[in-house]
Amino acid sequence: MQIIYGKNSVETYIQYAPNLVFEILLYSGVTEKTLKEVEALAVKAKISYRMIEKKELSKLVDGKAVHQGICAKVKDFEYRDIHEVLGDVKASGKIPFFILIDQMQDPRNLGAILRTADCTGIVDGIIITEHNSCDVSAAAIKTSTGAALNIPVIKVKNSKSIIDLLKKEGIWICGVDMVGAQTYRKQAYDMPLCLVIGGEDKGIRPIIKREMDFNVYIPMHSKTVNSLNVSVATSLLVYEVMHQRME
User: Which of 35, 91, 110, 184 is the most buried (most CB within 10 A)?
Assistant: First the structure.
């Protein structure tokens, strides 16, 4: 079982995945508007709910979490198998597009990337690593505003092994890195593609950089800042891929 929190996340689960929700918990001091909205959704979906005190709610979620007075007990997030996802993509007939995140630490960045992936509608799956990476946690789900329900997330033990598999499937590997790169707007993305994003502090690890077919970078013109937040950078790149494929 997993605890999720935040009004948008909980309401998304109630509306689109009620079978995954065990119980809804509301802080007794929640606004009347929120209470009525959630009650109506819960009754319609036939999901039990109850009021709890702030102390009990704080025990269920991270003490610093912005829970908005609402959380829910849901089924643990289910990661997908890469072979199943590749099969789904082949069956759809579309040009594959994956995002591989190499050891990202902040679940809020993961959630923001999930949200972008869902909004663009072109990302077939997000691949994360088991070690030194955040999971699809309550914080990631909240930041994604429920988009985590719509995008397949694949958890793998080894980034290099998954890159080898994708290459065998005819998928090109594109790194976001300054070395040997051209600006992201000048690169064509009309081929089967996996975009590799590095972690917040160190970027793509050297052992993974060697596996790239090509690299792109986002130009920076600041005198003091040399990079964007990783989720913002990913959004720019994903929307560029979407733009090119829609032309």
Answer: 110
- Looking at residue 31, what is its pLDDT? 80
pLDDT tens string 163-196: 999 999 999 999 988 666 789 999 999 999 999 9
**CATH T-level topology, domain 2-74:** 60s Ribosomal Protein L30; Chain: A; (3.30.1330)
Q: Quick check: pTM over 0.70?
A: yes
- 63 confidence band (pLDDT: 50, 70, 90): low
Pair 5, 24: CB distance under 8 Å: no
Confidence of residue 132 (pLDDT cuts 50, 70, 90): confident
Interacting residues of 63 by C-beta distance below 8 A, sequence separation 6+? none
Q: Where in the chain is the domain with CATH 3.40.1280.10?
A: 82-246
Number of CB atoms found within 10 A of residue 10's CB: 29
d(CA 159, CA 207): 9
Query: According to CATH, where is 3.30.1330.30 located in the chain?
Result: 2-74
CA 168 to chain CA centroid, Å, is: 25
Inter-CA distances, 6 with 26, 70, 145, 184, 203, Å: 10, 6, 8, 35, 30
pLDDT above 90: residue 238: yes
| Homologous superfamily of 82-246 | SPOUT methyltransferase, trefoil knot domain (3.40.1280.10)
Burial 126-139 (b: 16+ CB within 10 A, else e): bbbbeeebbbbbbb
